[in-house]
Amino acid sequence: MRSKRGKSLKEVTAFPLTSDGHDPMMDSPADVNEEQLKELGIELKVES
């Protein structure tokens, strides 16, 4: 995808990602731990 003002989408995107989809500014996506899930009231259920 190209824009009239940039050579690539990365040059015109407000929040550019690396080529593998990583956001270096927020270090995301990243794994979360149980404490973070509990703080947000999120419970993961494993289907069997």
Summarize the structure.
The protein is an all-alpha fold and 48 residues long. It has two helices and no strands.
Structure description:
The termini are far apart. The protein has helices spanning 9-12, 34-39. By secondary structure, it is an all-alpha fold. The chain is built from two helices and no strands.
Number of helices: 2
Q: Report the radius of gyration as a whole number of Å.
A: 17 Å
Provide the structure class.
mainly alpha
Mean pLDDT rating: 78
Number of strand segments: 0
Main sheet record: none
Gross morphology is elongated
End-to-end Cα distance, whole Å, is: 41 Å
Order of helices and strands: HH
Observed structural traits:
48 residues; 21% helix; single chain; mainly alpha
Task: Provide the fold topology.
Layout: H1 9-12, H2 34-39
